[in-house]
Specification:
The chain is α/β, with parallel strands linked by helices. Helix content is about 40%, strand content about 15%. The chain is built from 14 helices and twelve strands. The strands form three sheets. A seven-stranded mixed β-sheet has the order 3-9-8-7-6-4-5, with helices on both faces. Strands 10-11-12 form a three-stranded antiparallel β-sheet.
Amino acid sequence: MQRTAPEGRGPVRYGPPAPEPGLPVLPALATILAAAAGQAAGEPPGGGTALREAACGYWRRRGLRSRPHDVVAASGAQPLLFALIGAYGGDVLMPRPCPASWTPQARLLGRPAYHVPTPAECGGVPDPYALLETVRRVRAEGGKPRLLLLSVVDDPTATVAPPETVLEACEAAVGEGLHIISDETWRDTLHRPHETVLLSPAEMYPGNVTVISDLAGALTPASWPVAVARFPLTEQGALRRARTLDILTALGAVVAAPVAAAAAHALGEPAPVRARVGQAAALHARVAAAAHRAVLVSGALARPPQAGRHLYADLGPLRTRLADRGVSDSMELEEYLTERLGAPVPGGHRFGDELGALRVRLATGPLLGATSEQRLESLTSPAPLELPHVAEALRIFATAFDELR
C-alpha cells in the first residue's frame, strides 16, 4: 500500500519489507523435498491428509487438541491470513505495531483496520482497556468490529506477552464478541525457552480462537511457502474453515507437493529438526542481545528481544541528532539506516506505526554473515560473536548508532 509523501518525495511504502538472509537449509529437509520433486499429483486445496495430521501432532504437543478436518494449509501465511479475514467478516482490530502484511491484507479486502496500542511490557497483544475503548469508538461511528489479530510471540517487537496480559486482552475481546486470530509463527524461537512462560489464547478460549502459523518462523526455509491454521473444534469453526477453504481454492493458494512433504516432516519434529530450531534460536538470541546493547548505549530505546530474529528500536530520544542528518520520520530513518548498515532496515510505518515516530525494525539475520558458508559457520560456532564476520557486522552496527549519541 502507498500514499503520496510530503514535500514531493516518493511514495511511502507500507508493504512487506525486503527479504532477509536466512540460515542454510537443513540437509534432511532438502533431501525430502528433492525426493518428492517427481510427484505428479499435487496437494489438494487446504493441504493433504499427511500435512494436516502432522500439524495436528505439532499442536497436540503444545497442549492444543486438534483434528485433521479442523486444519487447513496454504502456500504461505499471507494468502492464509487473507482467506481467514475474508471468512470471518467485519472490521479488523490489531495491535500497534503489527506484522507488515496485516494492514494491507485487510485493506485489500475492503475491511477497515484499526490499530490498538499495546501495553508497556510487550507488543503483539493490545492493551485491554485501549481495546475496549477502540471497540466502543468504532461501534459509535457505525463500524462492526468482529475480528482481533494478535501475536503472543510478536514480530516486529520480538517480545513475548505475559500470560496475564494475554488473558486480559482475550477476556476483553471475547466479551465484546470478537473472534481472535492468534499468529503463533514465532513460538518456537524463544531466546530463553526454559525461563519464558508462553500461553496460547486457544488454551484460554478454545471456542473463540483460530491459530495460524507460518512454518518459516522456525521449521522451514522462507523460500518454501507453507502455513497452517487450526480452527476451533466447534460447529462455527467448521463453517469458517469451509469458507476459508473456498477462498484458498479461489486464490489457488495450494501448497506445492514437495514442500508439503518437507513441511510434514518438519512438523513431526524429529531430532535433526529440533536441534536446528534450538541452534537457530540460540544464535539469534546472542546476536540480538549484542545489537540491543548497542541500541541502548546510543540513547535509543528498545524492549529486550525475547524471541525471533528482530528487535524494534525507538530512536525518538535521538531526534535532534537525526534531524541534523535530514531524518524527521520513519521513512527517512529507514533510508538512512539502510544505507548506513548496508541491509534493509524497515521503518515503523510499515508495521502500523505513525510516520512521524522514529521507529525501525532491526534484523539479526544480516549480522550472521554475507554468504551461506559464513551463516553456517555462525550457526555451528560455540562462540559466534567472536567470528570475524559477525564481529565486524556488529562493529558496523554499533558505530552507526554510536554516531547518533
